Amino acid sequence: MVVATTLLTRPAPQLRRDQRALVEAIRRMTEFEAVAVLRGFDKTSRATRDAIAEVVRGHGGRVIDVTPVPGLGELGTVPAADLVVATNRALAPAAERCAAYWNVPAVVPGDGEGEHGRLVRTRQPGVYVTHGETGRDVAVRQLRLLGPVNWTDGTAPARPAEELVLKPTLGGMVVTAQYAGTSVTRPVSRMIEVEITDEVVAEIDGHAALVGVGRYEARPTTRPVCRVTVNG
């Protein structure tokens, strides 16, 4: 008796217009050997990553899948790339953070406005974060510490904060500290020191993770990250 079997295959997810524009933009960039891709866990993000990987390998390069997004101080464990790509707009801050860390361009989807496929280059300032001899990271949108910390910008003794937010600016950074129901915001052009005495939540460019006890320093970067936005 012959038993007939039917192999059911599901069609590959269709990429959105902005994701197709992203893939085509990568196709026009041939000088990169290692491309880091940040993606979501949905099928369309995976399909976009696969399409980008096919293009990169066609150019003789390789893809580094940066999923999930590393926490504060964990970027040193990721192999360095020549280009960073976000498969959706929500991951753009994380992609820019990786790009700033490696001093390479970040390619991110646009908001759909303007000419389809047009590339818009801008510069995004960052804040360089160090911890001890080996802990290094960069925040390009904001670093938010949720939990008891002590901080100082060198102009006064260290003061406590229950929440501390650092936002990069062209002139340095803006620091907002909340403690006992009061909030203080001030510009900082050089450096601040932060002492963490207990485990706290660190939200860096939209990605939250726990960080341990230690002394951290944050200072403006001297090399703003190059952001390449692809209009979709």
Observed structural traits:
2 domains; Rossmann fold; alpha+beta; 10-stranded antiparallel β-sheet; 16 strands; 232 residues; Tumour Suppressor Smad4
Structure, described:
By secondary structure, this protein is α+β, with helices and mostly antiparallel strands. The protein is built from three helices and 16 strands. The chain has helices at about 15-25, 45-60, 90-100, and strands at about 35-40, 60-65, 85, 105-110, 120-125, 125-130, 135-140, 145-150, 160-170, 170-180, 180-190, 190-195, 200-205, 205-210, 215-220, 225-230. The strands form two sheets. Strands 6, 7, 8, 9, 10, 11, 12, 13, 14 and 15 form a ten-stranded antiparallel sheet that branches. The longest helix is centred in the first third of the chain and has 16 residues, at about 45-60. The chain starts with 16 loop residues before the first helix and ends with a strand.
